[in-house]
Amino acid sequence: MGNAALDKALAEYAAVGTRYVKALEEKGLVFAEAGAGQARCAELRAELAARGVKVRNAGASLSVGHLSPACVECTGNRGSETFSTTFRCHRDCYFCFNRNQPDYEKFFHEGCPWEEGLRRSAAENDALACVGLTGGEPLLDLDNALALLRRAGELWPGAHKRMYTSGDLLTEESAALLRDAGLDEIRFSVKDDDAPEQQERVLAAMALAKRHIPSVMVEMPVIPGAKAHMQDLLRRFEEVGVDGINLLEFCFPFANWDEFARRGFTLKNPPFDVMYDYGYSGGLAVAGSEELILELMAWALDEGLALGMHYCSLDNKHRSEMRQKNERAARVHPCVEFDEGDFFLKTAKVFGPDVDVARRLLEDAGCRDFMEDAEERSLAFPPRFAGVLAGAARADGEPVRVMTCSFVYECEEGGGYLIDVALSDAQ
User: Fold this and answer.
1) Is 387 in a helix, a strand, or coil?
2) What CA–CA distance (Å, rounded) separates 396 from 320?
3) Taking the CA of residue 57 as centre, how many other CA atoms within 13 Å lie in the half-sphere pointing to its CB?
């Protein structure tokens, strides 16, 4: 007999992603084949988990060894915020996403209003756990970088403070000044396509930083095709003695597509685990980056490298936004629950001929909260009751198929509302 109502709902959700990809393909972007690499990534993820790698944020983050407090709080409940003093930079990376930032041109020329940003943030959260300083290149505006760190220390005395830099401009003097201003962690951006002399200079800057700053980290995107070079860099980072590395999923920032195309890159397909208009400006993940990161993590474990490793996927960048939007609405409706894993709001749902069987079994189990949609022919109920329907079947012998519907809570003047963004089989 099947379930036409469920088939229709699944097709409608799938069409959202299909339309999104098609619209971008019409603009000249190239996506990988749908699902390409997923099986290999699932295999590598299972291997890493079996070897003790910690799975975080519903799989969007994987870590082993040292993990920066800032990475914990990025999706934590105490709060982390990053500020810029300038968007100016002496580098010109083709994959930089700063041009996606609001008022980029204005702040590039005039500097960023960081004092205003700190005041706003302090008014919203007087117990902020982590403060980040990024750019541009913060060392091009050292005086303001120091002032920001000092002011952040006054506003949030216990906050962990970190700074992102290419490392090109770091000196013994500036490292000492940053330490004295309260910097707890420095993160070096290493570019895979830097000339050897540039990378040697940055490695030397890491060694310099270790003499002054409590924690030295590396954060870099992992570019497909760079396996051997990345292995060499990981060995060098180990020799320097950095605490750890954030391995970022490489992204296309909706700019310079010709540079990506010239290198033969394609985009991950589907582009997101859950389709949504995310606020993060990083763009779209490049196909093959995740697979290479997972391979590098497995290789580093084989090599016995001691530095911490953290895979921060594009989806992980979105997790913080989802927590901020959705946690406040955890009790918005009795049928809706806040998922502590991926931070979406969720309800359980059945469709079409499964509805009558499900309602009867759920009511017998004490469930009294439902949302019924006659047009969709669906019945939603609290996810904690989903197990009641395990093994349940309709009169025709077909199993009752329980789905999970994911929501995002949107706010506007006058109140908030839920929008449904995904439908998947209940786990």
Assistant:
1) helix
2) 44
3) 27
Tokens 């913060």, located at residue: 138
H helix or E strand, kind and range, residue 321? helix 314-326
Sign of CA dihedral 385, 389, 394, 395: negative
Locate the DSSP E strands across 137-226: 160-165, 185-188, 215-222
Nearest alpha carbon to residue 270 among 16, 57, 45, 44: 16
* Three-state helix/strand/coil letters over 251-294: EECCCCHHHHHHCCCCECCCCCCCCCCCCCCCCEEECCHHHHHH
Please give the structure tokens belonging to residue 22: 């098609």
Whether residue 270 has a cis bond before it, omega within 30° of 0: yes
Q: What single letter denotes the amino acid at residue 82?
A: T
Q: So what's the pLDDT on residue 370?
A: 98
Which candidate, 229, 230, 202, places its Cα nearest to that of 216?
A: 202
φ/ψ of residue 406, rounded to 5: -100, 140
Q: What is the reported pLDDT for 194?
A: 84
The one-character DSSP state at 393 is B
pTM of the model: 0.94
- What per-residue string of b and e applies to 188-217 under the rule 16 or more CB within 10 Å gives b? bbbbbebeeebbeebbebbebbbebbebbb
Say how far apart CA 422 and CA 10 lie, in whole Å: 9
- Name residue 411's amino acid: C
Query: Which residues have C-beta within 8 Å of that of residue 137, sequence separation ≥ 6?
Result: 86, 88, 89, 90, 91, 165, 166, 168, 169
Q: With 80 as the cut, is the pLDDT of residue 140 above it?
A: yes
Q: What's the rounded Cα separation, in Å, for the pair 403 and 373? A: 15
The SS3 of residue 153 is helix
Which residue from 258, 259, 262, 280 is spatially nearest to 271, judged by alpha carbons? 280
Higher-scoring residue by pLDDT: 90, 243: 243
Residue 102 has pLDDT above 80, yes or no: no
User: Are the C-beta atoms of residues 117 and 133 closer than 8 Å to each other?
Assistant: no
Residues 401, 403: Cα–Cα separation, whole Å:
6
284-285 and 251-252: which strand pairing? Answer: antiparallel
Rounded distance, CA 239 to CA 244, Å? Answer: 12
